[in-house]
Amino acid sequence: MVLFLQPVFQERIWGGTQLKNFNYNIPFDHTGECWAISAHPNGPNVITNGPYQGYTLDQVWEQAPSLFGASGQQNFPLLTKILDANDKLSVQVHPDDNYAQKYEGENGKTECWYILDAAPDAEIIYGVNADNQDELNQMLDQGDFETLFHHIKVTKGDFFYVPSGTVHAIGKGIMILETQQSSDTTYRIYDYERTDSNGKQRELHLEQSKAVIDVDRQIPQTRLPKEQYEQYTYQQLVSTTFFTVEKWDIHQQLAFDKQQPYYLVSVIEGEGVLYIGQQHFDLEKGAHFILTTEDQDIYFTGNFSMIVSYV
């Protein structure tokens, strides 16, 4: 039983209108985030097809655990987003599970980014230029942000794994697909002294940030090997205890070898058809769905790309 999902849109001070390019009717002039596959209480998706049409994903997770292999996890573990950074995001960091569960009442947030598009000379912040905790604290206290933050140029097709504790920020003119733990806890370090519509600067969280930042930044591997076949291309982007994320480019067709109980799928380019047994579903850029335990005999045809994730 495949589950198609209705996106939830979030207004952000840094958002824009580029999500229209994913066939969405966006509600805001500053639409920053499409929560594409989410059971988080701050933005659960509604199912748009089948017997669970009208239910939210968290309700299906709770009422029909067999669709997900009865994993035993209390909450749906992942969240897929598309972000439109019309302006640069705040510089931030996320806590790990232990810290977040103790102080925030939810899991921590490890995430990863696939760069869908990037303006010329676009860049992100990834990690810090501090050798130890004392140096980090001193630079934060003095507001020496220009020296502290590590900048990296990005282009379309780059990939970044962003574990909890990593200082990061998405720069202006970048669109990403983000796969993350299902968490909405963010500690803001620096926000360029921006003000909202009421003239107020957004809250910073420097003490929490000091407690969770990992100064041992690793240079990310942004271009990963691909496996080329006649009718499709496969690329594993990352595999960790939190999630595995893959990119599939369908050139003609793919008989999908389903080895996990359920998969989260996002179509990021092109169009095609999903066949499950005797059923078929048209796919286009911006479609998001979950293949559940009941889905067998799965075929994809067409010319499109999709990001696939699972636990």
TrEMBL record:
The reaction(s) catalysed by this protein are: D-mannose 6-phosphate = D-fructose 6-phosphate
Stored Pfam families: MPI_cupin_dom, PMI_typeI_cat
Which coenzymes or cofactors are required?
Zn(2+)
Q: Where along the chain is the active site annotated?
A: 188
InterPro entries in alphabetical order:
Carb_Metab_Reg_Kinase/Isom, Man6P_Isoase-1, Man6P_isomerase_Firm_short, MPI_cupin_dom, PMI_typeI_cat, RmlC-like_jellyroll, RmlC_Cupin_sf
| Sequence ranges assigned to domain Phosphomannose isomerase type I catalytic in this UniProt record | 4-111
So what EC number does this one have?
5.3.1.8
Record-listed Zn(2+) binding positions:
94, 111, 168
Domain named Mannose-6-phosphate isomerase cupin: residues: 236-311
One annotated GO biological process:
carbohydrate metabolic process
Gene3D superfamilies on file: Jelly Rolls
Under Gene Ontology molecular function, one entry of this record is: zinc ion binding
Q: Which domain of life is it from?
A: Bacteria
Q: How is the cofactor bound?
A: Binds 1 zinc ion per subunit.
Q: Which UniProt keywords apply?
A: Isomerase, Metal-binding, Zinc
- What is the main EC category here? isomerase
Protein family per UniProt: Belongs to the mannose-6-phosphate isomerase type 1 family.
Q: Per its UniProt record, what PANTHER family does this chain match?
A: FRUCTOKINASE (PTHR42742:SF3), TRANSCRIPTIONAL REPRESSOR MPRA (PTHR42742)
Tell me the NCBIfam families matching this sequence.
manA
The name this protein goes by in its record: Mannose-6-phosphate isomerase
Query: What's the source species for this entry?
Result: Staphylococcus arlettae
Gene that this polypeptide is encoded by: pmi
